[in-house]
Amino acid sequence: MKTPFRSGYRNLKFLSLALVAAPFFLSPALGQQNPDAAWKGKISKSAKDSQPYKVEYVKKAAANSPNIVWIILDDVGYGATSAFGGLIQTPHLDSLANQGLRYTNFHTAGICSPTRSALLTGRNHHSVGMGLFPHFYLSADYPGYNGHILPQKGTIAEVLHENGYSTYQLGKWHLTPDDESTDLGPFLRWPSGKGFDHNYGFLGGATDQYKPDLVEDNQHIKSDGRHLNELLADKAISYVKRQKELAPEKPFFIYYATGAGHAPHQVDKVWSDKYKGKFDEGWDVYREKVIANQKKLGVIPANAQLPPRDPYLKAWKDLPAEEKHLYARFMEVYAGFLEETDHEIGRFINYLKTSGQLENTAVFVMIGDNGGSKEGLEYGVTTKSIRFGADAITRDEYKKFILGEYDKIGTKEVASVANYPLGWAQATNTPFRLWKSDANAEGGTHNPLIVYYPKVVKEKGGIREQYSHLIDLFPTTLELTGVKQPEAIQGIQQDPLHGTSLAFSLNDKTAATRHTQQYYCIFGNRAIYKDGWKAAAAHHPTSLELFTYKGEAKPAIENNPEKEVWELYNLNEDFNELKDLAKKYPEKLKELKDLFDAEAAKYNIYPLIDIEHAAERYKLQPPPKAPVKTTASK
Questions:
Q1: 468 in a domain, yes or no?
Q2: Residue 363 — φ and ψ, nearest 5°?
Q3: Are 136 and 609 in contact (CB under 8 A)?
Q4: For the chain, give me the number of helices (H) and strands (E)?
Q5: Is the pLDDT of residue 281 over 70?
Q6: Which residues does 555 contact at the CB level (< 8 Å), separation at least 6?
Q7: Domain interval for residue 101
Q8: Ranges of H-type helices in 49-151
Q9: Is residue 64 scored above 90 in pLDDT?
Q10: What ranges make up the beta strands (E) of 418-484?
Q11: 449 has which bridge partners?
């Protein structure tokens, strides 16, 4: 028979163990506890002789601290939006840029999860275990690729939360390992485990825009059938409205990550039909128009030249009429998708303005987490079964199939992965070469950044050319908020940040670049930047080299990093990599290759985990067809 004492002892023992382990699983609701909250009064037997002392257990932000909004779009190249010279109209982003700053030399990691992990932690993506993705077949059991962000790599949300901010995550997350994605958790790598009070969006890399795999806080929920962009804007407004009512003096941080323009490209025809006929001239003419616009805006050098059309692509003029008709529709849908995204972001920004909060809000807009996507391949894609089953269908059979899909592109009736053809990826990446996941080229990693903060930024429509990388936004935010990076978060000692604050450049366009060195590596495609010089190597086989139709032989390409050819560019004189100087300056190339190896050792880049590795893991354990949910939708 258990005695009350023995039972109580066991409970007390369990509680003590829980308290020891607490830093590893405390949720944001249990966080934000003032580490300086020591009691400093005096106690005597008599209350008359005692001295009370009020402890502020929850740390408050400094008065008039700015609100912070980070907005990031998905799979959008440098030359897509009108804010940076593209032919897709984004009036709300244009307005932010025209009233703020355009950073023209900003860089991302080159693909989804690596970019997001580096952005939120302020650290290079391999150093936080996100060399690729948190999915089984796109990760590996090495320190740089395990897909698990550990507590020592605290996020900007955790830091701001501990300093009196409300924190909200909206939209795409893509940082939760597959086996932690059900409603049973664990939630350590959900937004709630990474410093966010509330979250509303999807955990994966992509979702249907009308039937999204939604999660709110710590459980899956059902959507009401409206477009995801509309739902995100509504939720962002509701978060701020509630905050304004309950704690008007408390600042907030919002991480607003749209699913657009990642596949599936889906939008109401009222948006896509606005572009009817606008792309009938094709991708070659698009590139010529955009580079002219970019020169007028001043977001590229006045003497810039277009790279040659990629060898995988055909000239638009040489395509059959039926293919031109189809491909133009793909781009009409993508353009409508992005303009609708801009409209919904604008609705949120307008709410901040009409509610009197925009003046004290620093808004950072990253137009893309990488360059335009090559995942639409040569002809475009509409359904996953065709895209991933290409080796079971001939080229002619696929062309016949895709030509019959015209009326389905962008619709909500089809559970699709609709994505435009490769030619539009190069076009929207104007003026750069290559595309998403090609971390060896600016087309994969060079994205626009808009900074809007009227309280601090005095210049309207300014251009900033300082070299920068998304890991810089974490320390920039800390400097603007007056918050110091903590030595520990919830008892966990923190590893150093890798970024450099951009605050120095906000009101000084002539200030020298402070971020002078940066590596890149996705699927083995790699590069190293140092003081304007860049060395880069494409890793073979690439995803395009692996893709073949039934009856077509895959190219015989040796997977050997030691034999891959490195290129060398002087980006100060050749910003879009048109002149390979490797043979002219072999010593500089060797210096940079050695530097890459040193960075690889420092940040866990090796071994190079590539697309072949992913293909083999995919055979072992393909991703589930639908997410496993463990609780009823609310």
A1: yes
A2: -110, 125
A3: no
A4: 16, 17
A5: yes
A6: 541, 545
A7: 67-373+422-510
A8: 91-99, 112-121
A9: yes
A10: 446-452, 462-464, 468-469
A11: 103, 366
Give yes or no for residue 628 having a pLDDT over 50.
no
Tokens 């059991």 belong to which residue?
A: 141
Average pLDDT over residues 395-403: 93
DSSP state of 310: P
Rounded Cα distance between 79 and 62, Å, is 40
**How is residue 257 written in tokens?**
């990550």
- Rounded Cα–Cα distance for residues 442 and 472 (Å): 18
Torsion, Cα 462 77 626 629, to 10 degrees, reads -10
Euclidean distance between CA atoms 417 and 591, whole angstroms: 43
What CATH code is carried by the domain that includes residue 216? 3.40.720.10
What stretches of 146-282 show up as alpha helix (H) in DSSP? Answer: 156-161, 228-246, 269-272
User: Are 544 and 537 in contact, with CB atoms under 8 Å apart?
Assistant: no
Domain assignment of residue 35, yes or no: no
Q: How many domains does the chain have?
A: 1
d(CA 50, CA 32): 29
For residue 628, what are its two tokens? 């496993």
307, 385, 344, 312: which is closest to 171 by C-alpha? 344
What confidence category does residue 412 fall into, taking pLDDT thresholds of 50, 70 and 90? Answer: confident
Helical H segments across 355-472, by residue range: 384-387, 395-403, 422-428, 442-445
Instruction: Report the SS3 class of residue 16.
Output: helix
Residue 587 falls inside a structural domain: no
For residue 12, count other CB atoms closer than 10 A to its CB.
10
Report residue 16 CA to chain centroid gap: 40
The beta strands (E) that lie in 497-626 are given as 517-522, 525-530, 533-537, 566-570
pLDDT at site 32: 55
Residue 205 pLDDT greater than 60, yes or no: yes
Q: Which two tokens stand for residue 77?
A: 């190249």
Is 110 among the domain residues? yes
| Percentage of the residues of the chain whose pLDDT score is greater than 70 | 91
Query: At how many degrees (to 10) do helices 321-354 and 228-246 cross?
Result: 10
- Tokens, residue 385: 């079964």
Which tokens sit at 367? 């137009």
SS3 for 347-363 is: HHHHHHHHCCCCCCEEE
